[in-house]
Amino acid sequence: MTDVTVCDNGYFTTMRLPLLRGRFFTERELREKSNVVIVNDALVRRCFGGVDPIGKQLVINMTAPNVPTEIIGIVADAKFTDRRTEPRPATFWPHPQLPYQAMTFTVRTAVDPLSFAPLLEREVQALDKDQPISDVRTMEQSVARTVAPARFNSMLLATFAGVALLLASIGIYGVISYSVTQRTSEIGIRLALGAERGDILRLVVGSGVRLAVVGLGIGIVLSLALSRTVSSLLYETTGTDPLAFASAVAVLGLVAVVASYLSAYRASRIPPVDALRYQ
User: Fold this and answer.
1) How confident is the model at residue 39 (pLDDT cuts 50, 70, 90)?
2) What is the mean pLDDT of the chain?
3) What does the CA dihedral 4, 135, 120, 27 come to, rounded to 10 degrees?
4) Can you tell me the distance from the alpha carbon of 94 to that of 110, in angstroms, rounded to the nearest whole number?
5) Residue 94, preceding bond cis, omega within 30 degrees?
6) Residue 132 falls within a domain, yes or no?
7) At what angle do helices 139-182 and 197-231 cross, to 10 degrees?
């Protein structure tokens, strides 16, 4: 299977596909059927390996009858359908050899492409007033169409991740606050025996941080184990992105520290007699 494009030499310049080997089409080949084709490097790697394909013949089921076609040039790879996958094999044909009823003009401009569109439409209408023109869009809009499913999946995944991070933060805060509350009597005893409030704060915060570190460590291990599952939903990143892991650890660690400090601060402000009676 190969991608098929019918074009002239201007297409390669416009799309910035450099010629790696061989040549482009001649003027005669662009006017007359000549049984020549230009291929991309991905097709060469798949079909020819390390053999130079220039001058060799290729039969592609796109004509009737299917006749051998000479490879005259090789251009660089490009991703035309899905930017997440490797470039696919592609062939480029001159129009006389594989005429299409519908054609697409690709134009590179130095100004806003949409502002240039009316001029192009007038030029086409001047050549043929009955020629219909449709689906005029910029390359950015074309790329946006191809990445729309991936972008939707990424937004959905980001939303779920944000909700999960929020719930995890609430859970960590609640658990640590509850654990400190359960130690209120202990804190009262320590205060009654002469412990400083700063000592209480360091003790409780340190205990909360150690608990959070253990939980974060287990969470990181489980996340790495499940990273392959979510990798297929990600675009231009991986399931083990260091920045994402660092951000999640930083947020949850900060929540644990804040929860420990606030709970310890409240408990250390309770009079020792009240704390001793706390149930």
Assistant:
1) very high
2) 80
3) 10
4) 27
5) no
6) no
7) 140
Question: Are 95 and 153 in a shared domain?
Answer: no
Q: What does each C-alpha distance from 265 to 160, 191, 194, 197, 257 come to in angstroms? A: 33, 13, 17, 8, 12
**Separation CA 226–CA 221 (nearest Å):** 9
Task: Give the pair of three-digit tokens for residue 139.
Answer: 């390359």
Q: 208 near 257, Cβ under 8 Å? A: yes
207 part of a folded domain: yes
| Residues 119-170: tens digit of each pLDDT | 888 888 888 888 888 778 877 777 777 777 777 777 887 788 788 878 877 8
Query: pTM (2 decimals)?
Result: 0.57
Question: Does residue 153 belong to any structural domain of this protein?
Answer: yes
State the pLDDT at residue 164. 82
Tell me if 37 sits within 8 A of 71, measured CB to CB.
yes
Percent helix, strand, coil in the chain (nearest 5)? 55, 10, 35
With contact defined as beta carbons under 8 Å apart, do 4 and 93 qualify?
yes
Please name the amino acid found at residue 29. E
| 71 lies in the same domain as 164 | no
**Residue that finishes a domain, picked among 51, 81, 104:** 104
More confident residue, 94 or 220: 94
| Domain encompassing residue 95 | 3-104
The pLDDT value recorded for residue 182 is 76
Structure confidence at residue 233 as a pLDDT band (50, 70, 90): low
Percentage with pLDDT > 90 across the chain? 11
Per DSSP (E only), the strands in 144-275 are: none
Contact 129, 210 (CB under 8 A): no
Q: Cβ(249)–Cβ(255) under 8 Å?
A: no
